[in-house]
Amino acid sequence: MSQLLLDVNGLTMRFGGLVAVNNVNLSVHNRQIVSIIGPNGAGKTTVFNCLSGFYIPSDGSVVFKGEQIAGLKDFRISRKGLVRTFQHVRLFSNMTVIENMLVAQHRHLNTNLLAGLLKTTHYKRLEQEAMDRAAYWLEQVDMLEFANREAGNLAYGQQRRLEIARCMVTQPELLLLDEPAAGLNPRETKQLDELIVQLRDEHEISVLLIEHDMSLVMGISDHIYVIAQGTPLADGTPEEVKNNPDVIKAYLGEE
Amino acid sequence: MRQNLYAAVFAAGITFVLTCLMIGVKLTSEGTQLQVVGASEAQWAWIFAGIALVFFSQLFRDQISTATAGIPRPNLGALMPDREKAARLKPWLIAAVVVGLFIWPFMASRGAVDLATLTLIYVMLGLGLNIVVGLAGLLDLGYVAFYAVGAYTYALLSAYFGLSFWVCLPIAALLAATFGFLLGFPVLRLRGDYLAIVTLGFGEIIRILLNNMTGLTGGPNGISGIDKPTLFGLEFNRRASEGYVPFHEFMGIDYNSGHKVIFLYLIAVVLVLAVLYVINRLMRMPVGRAWEALREDEIACRSLGLNRTVIKLSAFTLGASTAGFAGCFFAARQGFISPESFIFIESAIILAIVVLGGMGSQFGVILAAIVMTILPEFAREFQEYRMLLFGLLMVLMMRWRPQGLLPAKRPHMELKR
User: Fold this and answer.
1) Segment holding B223, helix H or strand E
2) Using CB atoms, which residue from A76, A94, A103 is nearest to B290?
3) Rounded to whole angstroms, how far apart are CA atoms A94 and B355?
4) Which residue from B7, B83, B99, B101 lies 20 to 30 Å from A153 (Cα-Cα)?
5) Test mutation, A52, A56, A73, A75, chain B, max B CBs within 10 A
6) Which of B216, B93, B212 is nearest to B152 (CA)?
7) Distance of CA A216 to CAs A179, A180, A195, Å?
């Protein structure tokens, strides 16, 4: 059936004596939404940092599209098609929305200085293409009307959506979303829910999700991994995870 | 009130100490001896008037600020025509300024044109440093090193190999860029204060090297007799060197030493316009956006696949090459260079131009360069207190316009639908 996109084996991250992530395995297939859940401080974001190259994992392998990427520089990993967002919105807030989208396409543009100085046709064509792609994705997240607004002046929910659009415009195959619903109201969460499903079904990309909003996670995930204190606790379909006694214990404490 | 009194006494005390040291006493050499001479009575009167002014202005500052609050502030924004009109007028305005720049030297005095040339050198330096500090947000305190590299490139190539100004101009820019690249590569992982210290050190290294490589650079004696630029092989001297024709003979006009000054000025104008065009394009190009993005959020940039080393390095290299241009021209104009011309104060002045003008703002930088080079000329009699005035200007600016004369308004890309 679907192909294996990301395969993580024995991922371990140590900070001095502290083991933040211990022997985590996970895999993401094509067109799949996979979630990582766990209590606060469980090491979920550390896993993201290891996958996206912000940390170099102490141990374990990260194979993306059949290629070992553990230890590669962050920007190289993102160029391979594995792009992430952050727990806190990280937009270029003094730039306009459309410029945020253009910066994300930096490597798709003609960055040859001479071509830009002389405005060659090739340069202009690539810039127009980038503009079109930006406009397309702004439309997908319902933000086209704000294209020329400064990103910092947008409402919080819009900033969240812009962040996802900004990732999508880099044409990734796997999107890592770190708590995308944090701080959103129920209506915005629902929009986000639809957007993520749409990304999988229409745009055929995979999503790896860290989220605390259980209704969102249970509703859209194809597979869920549970991490507690850096160690894998359980995994399975939403139904399996929901009924797993270990998971209930980790979340609610023992009776 | 009581608090104001303390503040007033304190401020007056500081003024007293500072003015006494700087104006009140002077060292003069009497034969081989140094003697301390007090200020004249008139000077003391001025000093005490100044102290009294500071004292009372601090004492009654509340009353003063309420009194001045009533005075309407000039609203500069309202003076500007609205956006559409401005966009229509802009090309005409630019054309008028450019034409003006080319015409006025023929009507102005020789001294004025010479001063304008110097100003243009600082404009060039300011614009170059503006790329590094204003656009890319990298604090560079050793910018003058690249200026020195440019100047010495021309001086040495001209002295040893007899290469002409026009050949050396690109070589100087390239060499300065190379130095920028070499310095930038190891240090650009540093940030903020650390980067500033390393670049400061680099600036000093270059100057001290030039000072000590006596065999090659002439050391502190510098290099003199550097050739002036030629116009397609025409020289601007009364008698041309062998194989060259003087400009005035070729044109069949009388020799006028002013021609040379005007010619140098025109070269400077062309160089500045070229630099302006390039930077203007850069700001609208992907790399310009990447600089700003990197300044705003480095982590987000990395996650989007931007290679920060390459992007920072491009800013550093481009800034350095602009300084190389300026340096090459400086050597040609001056005809004599020594390491004295490339001390840290120069870096500080160029940085001050960028900060005063408003980081990242080109027009602001040009304005600040004009202020910083022309004001000292007008205030000739204050020569000794130049640095004092300089400091005062800085304090006042930071107090009332910390964003600079004309803060940057980057051209934003717009989505047209």
Assistant:
1) strand B223-224
2) A103
3) 19
4) B83
5) A75
6) B216
7) 11, 10, 12
Chain A contact set for B287 (CB, 8 A) = 111, 113, 116
SS3 content of chain A, % helix, strand, coil (to 5): 40, 25, 35
Q: Do A170 and B305 touch (CB under 8 A)?
A: yes
What residue has token string 């996109």?
A5
User: What band does B242 get if pLDDT is binned at 50, 70 and 90?
Assistant: low
* Residue from the list B299, B306, B314 with its beta carbon closest to the beta carbon of A90: B299
Classify the C-alpha dihedral B294-B297-B299-B302 as positive or negative. Answer: negative
Q: What are phi and psi of A15, to 5 degrees?
A: -110, 100
User: Which 8-state DSSP code applies to residue A95?
Assistant: S
- Residue contact A134–B302, C-beta within 8 A: no
Tell which residue, B292, B137, B417, has the closest CA to residue A151.
Answer: B292
The string of pLDDT tens digits covering residues B360-402 is 788 888 988 988 888 777 766 776 777 777 788 778 887 877 7
How many whole angstroms separate alpha carbon B17 and alpha carbon A32? 75
Which tokens hold the place of B330?
A: 């400086």
Angstrom CA distances, A122 to A98, A126, B281, stand at 21, 6, 16
The two tokens of residue B236 are: 């601007």
Structure token digits, residue B383: 């020569």
Task: Give me the amino acid identity at A25.
Answer: N
How confident is the model over A144-200, as pLDDT tens digits?
888 888 888 999 989 999 999 999 999 999 999 999 998 889 999 999 999 999 999
- The tokens for B361 are 């703002």
Please report where in the chains the tokens 């912000």 appear, as a residue.
A54
* CB atoms inside a 10 Å sphere around CB A160: 26
DSSP lists the bridge partners of residue A31 as none
d(CA A18, CA A41): 13
Residue owning tokens 């083991």: A19
Q: Which residues contact residue B125 at a Cβ distance below 8 angstroms, ignoring those fewer than 6 apart?
A: B143, B147, B322, B323, B326, B350, B353, B369
Which pLDDT tens digit goes with each residue over B58-108?
888 788 778 777 776 655 555 555 667 777 788 888 888 888 888 888 887
Q: For residue A134, how far is the Cα from the chain centroid?
A: 18
**Lookup: tokens for B253:** 């006009």
Residues paired with residue A35 on neighbouring β-strands, in sequence order:
A209, A224
- Token pair listed for B295: 């300044």
Q: For Cα atoms B338, B342, B345, give the angle at the middle one, nearest 5 degrees.
A: 140
Q: Cα(B111)–Cα(B120) distance, rounded to whole angstroms?
A: 14
